[in-house]
Each structure stands twice: as structure tokens, then as C-alpha cells.
Amino acid sequence: MLSLPSSPHLAEWVSRLVQIPSVTPEQAGPRAGEPGEAAIAEAVAGWFAQFGGEVHWHEVQPGRPSIYAIWRGRSGNQGRWLGVDVHTDTVGVEQMTDPPFDGRIAHGRVYGRGAVDTKASLGVVLALLESIHNAGVQLEDNLLIAATVDEETGATGAPGFADWLRMREMILDELVVAEPTGCTPVHGHKGLVRMEFTAHGLTAHSAQPQRGQNAIWAAARVTLALEAEQNRLQALPATALGIPQLTVVLINGGIGRNVVPDTCSVAIDRRLTDGEDPLAVTAQLIGLAEAASPLPLTHEIWRQIAAFYQPADSELVTRMAEWSGQTPTVAPYGTNAWAYGDVTQQRIVLGPGSIDQAHGAVEWVEIDELAKLTGIYARWWGLT
Ligand SMILES: [Zn+2]
User: What is the DSSP string of 51-62?
Assistant: First the structure.
């Protein structure tokens, strides 16, 4: 007989996870403990194995392993595959006014870095797997839990997991990407292209500017062409994810007060709606910038992420909305869900707690939210 984990037990699991620092190396400072996901991966892999999972290590980056674990269901390999993607990294802790890793349980909350983003979901998953294992229950569906690295900065964990699935020719029927949504089913968010253009000219004495080639003047024309592109985008019809957006975010150039500048860089942030191909958008922006610049232009691509959109009337969205009692919505922020278009049939983003507490000076998750997610997962996994 299976009994669902109690609220205190859920809180203990989340607290245990918070006490294992896993700050993304890019944001690791003196208070971060051992940076990266290696320690938490080791612990999670141990628990997955203890609860009967078939554990796979995937070293996405040196020293940064994602852990994938499979529980085979009664329906066999041809049955349905349910998946959870929960990232194990957290943002930095240097700005925290609260102890980052004590994982204390107080006021109906669990405190500490990662409590809400997103060790809450991982704690619920582990508590449920423990209950299922102790009760000797085999699920009807196949279950794959992916504890992925590098969500907060580099975003290599999600494409790494997608590649791993592709190599095995696996397609998940349903995937929940864990993020703090207040247990609301999030069924879409915009994609992103971030890149930088650099105009290359020639320095000269500023008293003789005709002897140089001014890169700032060239970059200025590029920014104006990009502004015109943003105006064009604003006239497009809105999609379910809104309108595409483009803005210049950084400009960098010049050598001195009396020197014609030979380089100038302009960085941009372009938000994509459903159906826009990040590679095609990038190529279009390069063409537009090159046409506008009177000087040779190079570019550097920082980030290319497709939009994520699961129609609101999809079966998974409808079911999760019913179980959570919340109206499905689209999010203003990005998540790992972008990476799984071709390796899932249906996907949503859902998890306990509020994005308001994520990345903050004090971070916590409400224990009631943990219990709520436990109830949703229990129904999803056919336990109740
Ligand atoms: Zn997160």
C-alpha cells in the first residue's frame, strides 16, 4: 500500500538538497562552496539507484554531469514514457542576505539557494520515488527523470539531454520541465537570439579623420537599421506568444579622445515567437547589419534558443490545469523547454513556488506548494 510523502518529509528532502551547494560556476564567488553540479549529481545518482532506478551519467561538460534515471513501467517499452527535466544548478549566492545553504525549515517554508529554483521539484520527485520504492509499486507508464546541469547560465544541459534522447531514438510522450510556476501549467515562452556585431575600420589622428575609417559611424548605421527592423516587427500580427522584439543592449567602441576609432561593437537581444527559426533569424539579422554597415562587419553569436509553444488545448495542458486548479499561461522568462521540440510529444513547464523568490537575496519555497506538486505528480504517475 502506497502512502504519499507527508509535508514534513517533503520539506526534509528539499532541505537536504539545498544543503548541497550547486552554484553555476559562472556565478561562483567566495560564499558559493564547491561550484558546479558534481556533488549534487553524485548524491542524486545514489538516491535514484537506491530507489530502483536505472541510472545513466552524462558528462555534459567536464566535471558537470547530468543524471538520467529510468523506471520501467508495467506497460513495457512500447508503453508511454513520462519525463521530468529538473535542473540541478542554482544562481550565485554572493548577493544573498540569508544563509544560502542551511536549508532551514521555518514558517511553513524551506529556505536557501535553490529551494524554489528548482530543488523543490527535485525533492518532491525523490520523496515520491522513495515512497513508490518502499511500497514495491511498479508504475504503469515508463518514467525518466533527468537531473540536468547548466540551466542558469550556459544552457547546455537541456540540449545535452535532448541529444541523449535522440541517440537512443527515444521520444517522451509527456515531459514536465521543472521551474517555479506556482504549480500553474506554463505552455509557452519566447525564444532568444543574442549576438554582437563589430565594425572594423582604421585608426588615425582625430585632427585628420579623413585618414581613418570611423567604426563608430559604421556601428551607428547598424543600430539604426536594427531599430527599423524592430519597427517592422511591431507591425506584425501578434501570435499566442505576442510579437517578436529586438533591441540594442550594449555598445562598445573607441580608443581615446583624439583617435579615430577602429572598432565598435553593438550587441542585440532578439526575442522570438512560435515558429521563428533561431538560425534563420540570426542569418536575417546578419544580412541586415552587413547591408547597413559601410565597413567590414564581423559577428559573434552568444545564444540561440527557439520559442516553446504547446497549444493551450493540448491534452497534457488541459489535464495539468485540471489537477492543479490553475489556468494555463505563457511565461515572460525562458526555460529548458525550448530544447525538447523534436524529442517530446507534449511538454509543459510546471513546478512549486513563485518565480518572485527565485534568484533573490532570500529564497524559499512554501511547503504547501510541495504537497500540491506531490498531488499532481501522484495523479500523473497513476498513483492516485
Ligand atoms: Zn530554474
Answer: TT-EEEEEEEET
Q: How far, in Å, from the CA of 117 to the mean position of ligand 1? A: 4
Taking the centre of ligand 1 as the mean of its atom positions, its distance from the CA of residue 363, in whole angstroms, is 12
**250 pairs with which residues across the strands?**
267
Give distance in angstroms: CA of 245 to centre of ligand 1: 23
CA dist., res. 181 & res. 206, Å (int): 55
What is the block-wise mean pLDDT of the chain (384 residues), using blocks of 10 residues?
A: 94 98 96 97 98 98 97 95 98 96 98 98 98 97 98 93 98 98 97 97 97 98 98 95 95 96 98 95 98 98 95 97 97 93 97 93 98 98 95
Rg of the chain over all Cα atoms, to the nearest angstrom: 24
Q: How far is the CA of 382 from the centre of ligand 1 (A)?
A: 26
Secondary structure of residue 172 in the 3-state scheme: strand
**pTM of the predicted model, to two decimals?**
0.90
**Domains of the chain (ranges, CATH numbers):** 7-189+307-380 (3.40.630.10), 191-305 (3.30.70.360)
Tell me the CA–centroid distance for residue 152 and ligand 1, in Å.
7
- 200 CA to middle of ligand 1, Å? 39
